[in-house]
UniProtKB/TrEMBL annotation:
Binding site for (S)-malate: 163, 420, 466
Cofactor, how bound (note): Divalent metal cations. Prefers magnesium or manganese.
GO MF annotations in UniProt: malate dehydrogenase (decarboxylating) (NAD+) activity; metal ion binding; NAD binding
Protein name: Malic enzyme
InterPro entries: Aminoacid_DH-like_N_sf, Malic_enzyme_CS, Malic_N_dom, Malic_N_dom_sf, Malic_NAD-bd, Malic_OxRdtase, NAD(P)-bd_dom_sf
């Protein structure tokens, strides 16, 4: 940044802005123009050296939560340095700013909160039910960066903290999740960090430990009932969309019942999607498309067992069913019959005798001839699945016996323990490799370490089936195409693009998902597919995007997408195979 570029900003803005300040890299002439001499040591450093020091500091911290706090502080004081570091070190930093460490951060949020950002710099926007009369005003208070009127928020991620990862109700501590997801939007898809809006709704908490914790910062009362919940969410969505008509809203980590109800209500009329239902559905469909090639069984012969029957499991099941209909010519009934759901009471059947939640009804079995199957082992014996997906938050549920049965039933069993964070996963990669004798086709929600076979020394890499391969690109594609709503077709196109994003080399290594350092390239592919589909379904409204899609020039479309990605230095970078740098 040069002096002349900066003269339009006032001095206060530049030196205090977490976005504009360059800290120890501020050039001498700028220090002089801004009256900053003496306020930092004399040396003018390069951005590279700043990143090197930040990395050394990060590595000097002894625990992951300390690293989380360090990185949050960096993000809240020097945005570009933070994203520069994250972009260079994706594999090291993502597990700190996202799952698994973000789970620990949410659990301890009220204790670490004052150390995440300097006073006056908000970590996110907190809206409590008591704010109902003043929502519009309070939303406008959220200005973490000196505001340029063109920098209105483009994406909001919103939670009520009621189902954070597999950790349950964490109340306002849930803020770590919208903040974490939006960091992925920036790092993974080049959304401008100044245009992201993390929101946590505070309607109380049913977490007794939080209610008793003297440091807990949320409303110290039980969660409001549905009679208050829905009108409050309505009011928030109305206030947000009136203020920012083009805002894309991502619903995240709401308890399942509410998640489905909010999606049913808003998908047809607002520019929004639910990440746990639709993002997860799309990313696991992508992994499944690649997994069936490795399993060597025709798609129509698969039997898919879901352990867990909440928003994530049903979201994935619906995406898979759509795939069997769209790509394999099955009828809706045939596709539905490929799926078995298991919840805490066992196999979900229509005649089980309990009242099934609305979202389980569609996949409830009616071919069980009156028999019920209460345990996972009894269900596996009954169904003889080819694929087993864990979305239950039940750590260790895929026991040695379960994994051995999957291996005895299949040449290449597909086993995806998808619950987050890693210690909530149904099994680890190591367990899956050992108990299937290396036959498993594997993906987990949180990354597990590579496995080295003790006899052969062969190293195997696990897949990471996490919605982070979908939502950043889906969001970017949505922003670029500007449809009024996010249709099922757009979600489906995102899944297919993610599946197709594997390089020849990644395929030859048996990977299900692209390697993490390629996330921007994958997001570009996903965004381009979403834009293309929006044009095809007639919902896109951005003329430039429509023209490009109609020209059938894929390279030009990808270039358009990547030229719209934010970078730390404002320069467009080549989206080549290993170009993670922001
Ligand atoms: N990998 C990803 O990208 C991704 C995305 C979304 C959610 N998830 C993970 O999926 C998990 C579930 O999320 P959700 O929104 O569906 O939550 P949820 O609480 O709605 O669903 C959990 C389900 O597990 C079932 N269950 C609980 N105990 C069980 C038991 N002992 N045996 C069998 N089933 C049991 C419940 O009945 C429920 O159906 C979480 O851990 C979440 O982190 C992962
Ligand atoms: O947040 C994640 O890592 C994935 C997912 O949205 C979840 O709720 O577990
Ligand atoms: Mg989630």
């Amino acid at each position: 940044m040069t002096v002349s570029e900066n003269t339009t900003h006032n001095i206060q803005q530049i030196s205090k802005s977490s976005y504009l300040n360059q800290s120890t890299a501020t050039p001498t002439e700028l220090r002089s123009a801004l009256h900053l001499q003496g306020l930092t040591p004399a040396k003018v450093e390069s951005f590279e050296l700043q990143k090197k020091r930040a990395l050394a500091q990060l590595r000097s911290k002894s625990s992951d939560i300390e690293k989380y706090v360090f990185l949050a502080w960096l993000r809240n004081t020097n945005v570009r340095l933070f994203y520069g570091l994250v972009g260079d070190q994706l594999e090291e930093t993502l597990p700190l700013i996202y799952t698994p460490t973000v789970g620990t951060a949410c659990q301890n949020y009220s204790s670490i909160y004052p150390f995440l950002a300097p006073p006056g710099q908000p970590d996110g926007l907190f809206l409590s039910i008591n704010d109902l009369p003043n929502l519009t005003e309070i939303i406008q208070n959220y200005k973490p960066f000196p505001q340029d009127p063109s920098l209105t928020p483009q994406i909001a991620v919103i939670t009520d903290g009621s189902r954070i990862l597999g950790l349950g109700d964490l109340g306002v501590g849930g803020m770590g999740i919208p903040v974490g997801k939006l960091q992925l939007y920036v790092a993974g898809a080049g959304i401008d960090p100044r245009r992201t809006l993390p929101i946590t709704l505070d309607l109380g908490t049913n977490n007794e430990d939080k209610l008793k914790d003297e440091f807990y910062l949320g409303l110290r009362e039980k969660r409001a009932g549905d009679d208050k919940f829905f009108p409050f969410v309505d009011a928030v969505i109305e206030a947000l969309t009136s203020l920012y008509p083009k805002l894309l809203i991502q619903f995240e980590d709401f308890s399942s019942e509410h998640a489905f109800q909010l999606l049913d209500k808003y998908q047809p009329k607002k520019f929004c999607f639910n990440d746990d239902i639709q993002g997860t559905g799309a990313v696991i469909l992508a992994g499944f498309m690649n997994a069936i090639n490795l399993a060597g069984i025709p798609a129509k012969d698969h039997k898919i067992l879901f352990f867990g029957a909440g928003s994530a499991a049903v979201g994935v099941a619906k995406q898979l069913a759509a795939y069997f209909v769209n790509d394999h010519g099955m009828t809706e009934d045939e596709a539905r019959e490929m799926v078995w759901l298991v919840d805490s009471k066992g196999l979900v059947t229509l005649d089980r005798g309990d009242k099934l939640a609305e979202h389980k009804l569609y996949f409830a079995r009616k071919d069980n001839a009156g028999s019920q199957y209460p345990s996972i082992t009894s269900v596996i014996e009954h169904v003889r699945p080819t694929a087993l997906f864990g979305l239950s938050s039940q750590s260790g549920a895929f026991s040695e016996d379960v994994l051995k049965s999957m291996a005895s039933l299949n040449q290449r069993p597909i086993v995806f323990p998808l619950s987050n964070p890693a210690y909530q996963a149904e099994c680890s990669f190591e367990q899956a490799m050992i108990h299937t004798k290396g036959k498993v086709i594997f993906a987990s929600g949180t990354a597990f370490p590579k496995y080295t076979d003790p006899n052969t020394g062969l190293i195997s890499a696990p897949g990471q089936g996490n919605n982070m391969y979908i939502f950043p690109g889906l969001g970017l594609g949505g922003i670029l195409a500007q449809p009024e709503t996010i249709s099922d077709r757009l979600i489906y196109s995102a899944a297919r693009a993610c599946a197709n994003a594997l390089t020849v080399e990644e395929r030859s290594q048996g990977l299900l998902y692209p390697v993490l350092p390629r996330i921007r390239q994958v997001s570009a592919e996903v965004a381009a597919a979403v834009v293309t589909e929006a044009v095809a379904e007639g919902s896109a409204t951005n003329e430039e995007a429509i023209k490009l899609v109609k020209s059938h020039d894929k390279a030009a479309l990808l270039n358009f997408v990547s030229s719209n990605m934010w970078t730390t230095d404002g320069v467009q970078h080549e989206i080549t195979t290993f170009a993670p740098h922001l």
